[in-house]
Amino acid sequence: KQEVTQIPAALSVPEGENLVLNCSFTDSAIYNLQWFRQDPGKGLTSLLLIQSSQREQTSGRLNASLDKSSGRSTLYIAASQPGDSATYLCVPWMDSSYKLIFGSGTRLLVRP
Amino acid sequence: EADIYQTPRYLVIGTGKKITLECSQTMGHDKMYWYQQDPGMELHLIHYSYGVNSTEKGDLSSESTVSRIRTEHFPLTLESARPSHTSQYLCASSDLSGYTFGSGTRLTVV
Predict the structure, then answer these.
(1) A30-51 confidence digits (pLDDT tens)
(2) Which of A32, A41, A44 sits opposite B101 (nearest CB)?
(3) Angstrom distance (rounded) from CA A30 to CA A51
(4) Chain A residues with a Cβ under 8 Å from any Cβ in chain B
């Protein structure tokens, strides 16, 4: 059974810091992996999708890497801003059924 | 603009009432999903559909039902709401380019 662990569970940093959010999953036979952010009481906003044949994706200040063999993904946030405060979710897709596996995420607070 | 829409955004309703949560997407995705999320907790899949006239139950048992008569529309219905149904309900659709989630419906049953 696939399990997703995100470390740290919570993070509070001053504005401007570069951040690394870590994700590990127990079953490396994933189809894709998608990073989302969720603001309190809101839906999920897609940040980056890494397909199984790729090792990383970049969008603006965000960079996500994927190492399927070791069951790890990392989200790097450069020059953090208060608007980055949210819960970040690392979500593997299991096979072509597109089934998602959710962990508890990392709650990020960026202080002005 | 391609997007996924959920209505209502908030709903407070009395016990025993029948409710329908609406979800529509403009991206032409065949795959659509309903997730349930309690505050501060993980998302749990309650229903999914891989196309018109195709619906399946998810991992979390739910008293709700769904229908998929049109590609773009995937409503969720509770025949008789109970306080235990109080939660946030998130609709999503997907294709190879990724999942897209709606803003959610926060349901409170009093």
Answers:
(1) 889 999 999 988 899 999 999 8
(2) A44
(3) 9
(4) 32, 34, 36, 41-46, 49, 91, 98-100, 102-104
Contacts of B106 (CB under 8 A, 6+ apart): A41, B9, B10, B11, B88
Q: Which residues pair with A110 in a beta bridge?
A: A13
Per-residue pLDDT of chain B (110 residues; tens, 9 = 90+): 669 999 999 999 999 999 999 999 999 999 999 999 998 888 999 999 999 999 999 888 888 999 999 999 999 999 999 999 999 999 999 998 899 999 999 999 99
Token look-up 């979390």 returns B60
Inter-residue contact A19 to A10 (CB < 8 Å): no
**Interface test mutation site (partner B, options A54, A98, A101, max chain B beta carbons within 10 A):** A98
